[in-house]
Amino acid sequence: MSKRVMNPAARVTAVALAATGLGATMVAGAGSAFAAEGKAAAPAAVTASAAVAAQADAQAQVAAQVKAAAAQAKAAQVKAAQIKAAAVKAKAATPAKKAAKKAAWVKPVSSYTLSASYNQGGAMWAHKHSGQDFAVPVGTPVKAAGFGTVVKAGPYGGGDGPAYGNAIVVKHANGTYSQYAHLSKIKVRIGQKVAAGQQIALSGNTGNSSGPHLHFEIRTTPNYGSAVNPAAFLRAHGVTI
């Protein structure tokens, strides 16, 4: 029986070829694997990039919304501050407006019935009546007809005679004087400044009086004998009785 002997050179060549073929197969397989991996990795990278972009866009939108909300809040605060400042200014101006609208002259009593009028004759007076009488109950608040300074206050007409009972005379800035007589109580003193409408006394029935009332005069001097028509004077100054 004979043996086949391979030429050593041929054997080396065969082994080399076999190795070469195996390497080629391995290389081809590896290349195929790398290609497959590359194909699989590409969509994942694109998806991650899109997610980052979407997140950045969402964050930008949220930041814009926060910024807009902050701007609106600031605008609201500014508006609220402006409204508050306007309210404070209006409130501060209100007393001044009220003072400006306050009448310079007022009625000496609020609720009354007119009785004896100026220059009326009768047995009650030695001469004709020198003022306007307002029939009111005893204790009715008596008010200063206008701003001025008290120059007389006391019994016996404040110095004008006992017929007036308790009386007050107020000097006004226009050079006239107002007199309030037959009072039950005097609430001011000589030298005191009074405002129009300020309570200065309570009405009564003192002196030469036929019943509870306020005797009111307007004079050109502080003394008896210089009276003018008080109703006409008040009308001329915007007060109707």
TrEMBL record:
<dbReference type="Pfam" id="PF01551">
    <property type="entry name" value="Peptidase_M23"/>
</dbReference>
<feature type="signal peptide">
    <location>
        <begin position="1"/>
        <end position="35"/>
    </location>
</feature>
<keyword id="KW-0732">Signal</keyword>
<dbReference type="InterPro" id="IPR011055">
    <property type="entry name" value="Dup_hybrid_motif"/>
</dbReference>
<protein>
    <recommendedName>
        <fullName>M23ase beta-sheet core domain-containing protein</fullName>
    </recommendedName>
</protein>
<dbReference type="InterPro" id="IPR016047">
    <property type="entry name" value="M23ase_b-sheet_dom"/>
</dbReference>
<dbReference type="InterPro" id="IPR050570">
    <property type="entry name" value="Cell_wall_metabolism_enzyme"/>
</dbReference>
<feature type="domain" description="M23ase beta-sheet core">
    <location>
        <begin position="128"/>
        <end position="230"/>
    </location>
</feature>
